[in-house]
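Holo prediction. Input below; ligand is NAP.
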Amino acid sequence: MHTTIIDGAAVARDVLESLTLEVAAFRERTGRQPGLATVLVGEDPASEVYVRNKRRSAERLGIADHHRHLPADTTQARLLEVIDELASDDAVSGILAQLPLPGGLDATTVIDRIPWYKDVDGLTTTSAGLLARARPGLRPCTPSGVITLLDSAGVEIAGREVVVVGRSELVGRPLAQLLLQRDATVTTVHSRTRNAREVTLRAEILVVAAGIPHLIGRDDTRAGATVIDVGIHRSAEGLIGDVRFEELLGHASHMTPVPGGVGPMTIAALMRNTLQAAMLGEAIA
Ligand code: NAP
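Structure of the complex:
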């Protein structure tokens, strides 16, 4: 069987290109510029790289940069104050608190301080509730990126047997809900699942977000399945995913690579959310 590799970088480029036009049209129509506030606390090198990439991407699109970098010893009270300042600033369409936060800071409280209409990461309890109820709102970036990748590859979702490996608040859980809203028959596999292989073998679409390098191989997947690898790990061989990519060549019908699969789409989805937040801001004002 021929395996089609889903080129996440190319799909993300297309999304960003059309967003550039949409941002320009928004500015023309409203006379306002969408703005993104990334909030980074401390000096974690990986977080610094992630935030830099998000800011660069926003800048290229014509989205204003309202970045805040706070010292590692920032108190919870001060961080909440900063979130409140950004929440009441009309120039800020979206707020993103980069995780993980340094020890001593409570991420759930900080995230939940972001108003739902500025929650561009889609991680507040309100956003999770809107998603669970299938009401309009801002959706988490990686899961909505996965849906975009499936759509871009022409993979039918409705009515299909879909298995999501992982149930984190960031990826697995919201993704299962998005897939359900697209009329898939969804099963979630997690660390307590018995006979996980029996379940993953049923999947016509298998999305793997377990955070375990090379967890899934040919024996875990049905021939002709579409396999989306969300995992990302640094190894001696470079970046690798949760899926043993080489084993699935000639076995899967569609597959995402690591790197160059889900990763680039996550940032594109964040940019899409920022524009959507700017539109929500307009509607609410
Ligand atoms: P996480 O919070 O660690 O969650 C992992 C999930 O996998 C948990 O629900 C866990 O089950 C489940 N799990 C663990 N071992 C398992 C096993 N052997 N079989 C089945 N399920 C198992 O991770 P995450 O934040 O969702 O991220 C998952 C991966 O995606 C990571 O590699 C992360 O780096 C990557 N990621 C990539 C992007 C991107 O943009 N490409 C974005 C976000 C995350 P329990 O709930 O039972 O513990």
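The pocket of NAP is lined by residues 142, 165-168, 170-172, 189-192, 196, 209-212, 215, 230-233, 262-263, 266 (CB under 6 Å). That is the main takeaway for now.
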